[in-house]
Amino acid sequence: MFMIRRAIKPYFSHVISWTILLFLPFIGYLYQPQKLSELNFYFVQTHFLNIAFLATAFYSNLHYIAPKFFFEQARIKFFVLILLVLGIYIVMTYLFFRLNPEDELKHLQEKNILFIRLVFGPTIIYSLCILTSTMLFLYDEQAHQKELNKQIELEKTTAELNMLKLQISPHFLFNTLNNIRWLIRKKSEQSEESVMKLSEILRYIIYEVEGSKVEFSREIEHLRNFIELQTLRLPIEGNVVFKVDENIKNYLIEPLLFIHFVENAFKYGIDSKNAPDIVFEFSTLPNGLTFYSKNKILLKKANIQNEGIGLTNIQRRLELLYPNKHELKITHNDEYFEVNLKLILES
């Protein structure tokens, strides 16, 4: 039933408009019903036929002539058809007067207004009808084109986001497998635990982030698994902190927004000679959350400012997914690299 009402709704105004045009000449009889006996049946008949012809021309142009010929290079076909229908309408008007039993044609000739009544008047009425029909077609075409452009842009954005996700996963997998290989070479008892955590991480990436959004708690669990997996291979004990404010709502968020910063902190914040100092914090905002990351830079030779596709990747994703709803600040000096990301998740 809803689908039927939705299909009929755009044409409701059409029905009202044509009904008004159909009964407009007879409104006066509502106030003077005694004159109904004087109503000319021939006039009623010709008026109804005129409205029927104009309605046919209107919708023929709207649904067939304009869509097929208006945008053609040889637009002359459009105007030829419109003029041809106009000619038919003028001839039809002339025939109506010829068939008038009251000989109205002769009456008009005597008053010298035959041209106005048979040619000029019908041409104006028909032109207004076709102009309205063509404008309505152009409006619908413009709306359709806007919708098409939105759909194309959405598909483009979806494809780009999928590509960006795929760029994250192989890089993450490469680093994690290297970590497991390192544990196996050490014959560490933690090898099995690391494989289990990797399995959880891969399950999340492969099966749970296919949709547009995930629960914040699942993203936190994913990050916690990753951080625990990374801390298994620390050559020197140090400070690795992961804090999550308990008051943060379980928002639905885009997946894999923070993993790059976490990877980056371990990538540049661990070496074999110094104790790491790495901090990750999630805190609440009135309408969102804040992610803060800080790590001591232990790989001095690494080019932090141009650290590859990862930073560009996450910046691009934020622009696409949270336009005007995020603030990303990245600062660093010779000792520390800091990230502060604010997300607005409630409008």
How would you describe this structure in keywords?
347 residues; five-stranded mixed sheet; Heat Shock Protein 90; 2 domains; two-stranded antiparallel ribbon; single chain; 7 strands
In short:
The protein is α+β, with helices and mostly antiparallel strands and 347 residues long.
Low-confidence stretches: none
Mean pLDDT, rounded to whole units? 79
CATH topology of the largest domain: Heat Shock Protein 90
Based on CA atoms alone, the radius of gyration comes out at 37 Å
Biggest sheet overview: 5 strands, mixed
Q: Which structural class best describes the helix and strand composition?
A: alpha+beta
Which class of the largest domain in CATH terms?
Alpha Beta
Strand content: 5-15%
Give the strand line-up of the largest sheet: 2-4-5-7-6
SSE pattern: HHHHHHEHEEHEEHEE
User: What percentage of residues falls in helices of 4 or more residues?
Assistant: 55-70%
Domain Signal transduction histidine kinase internal region: 159-234
Organism: Emticicia oligotrophica (strain DSM 17448 / CIP 109782 / MTCC 6937 / GPTSA100-15)
Keywords: Kinase, Membrane, Transferase, Transmembrane, Transmembrane helix
Transmembrane segments: 12-31, 43-66, 78-97, 117-139
What can you tell me about this protein's structure?
The chain has 347 residues and is of the alpha+beta class. It has two domains: 15-149, no CATH class; 188-344, 2-Layer Sandwich (Heat Shock Protein 90). Helix content is 61%, strand content 13%. The chain is built from nine helices and seven strands. The protein has helices spanning 2-23, 41-69, 76-98, 104-111, 114-185, 191-208, 216-231, 259-269, 309-321, and strands at 214-215, 239-244, 252-253, 277-285, 288-296, 326-332, 336-344. Strands 2-4-5-7-6 form a five-stranded mixed β-sheet, with helices on one face. Strands 1-3 form a two-stranded antiparallel sheet. A hairpin with a 3-residue loop joins strand 6 (326-332) and strand 7 (336-344). Helix 2 packs antiparallel against helix 3, helix 5 (114-185) packs antiparallel against helix 6 and helix 6 (191-208) runs antiparallel to helix 7. The longest helix is centred in the middle third of the chain and has 72 residues, at 114-185. It starts with a helix and ends with a strand. GO terms for molecular function: kinase activity. This is Signal transduction histidine kinase. Residues 159-234 form the Signal transduction histidine kinase internal region domain.
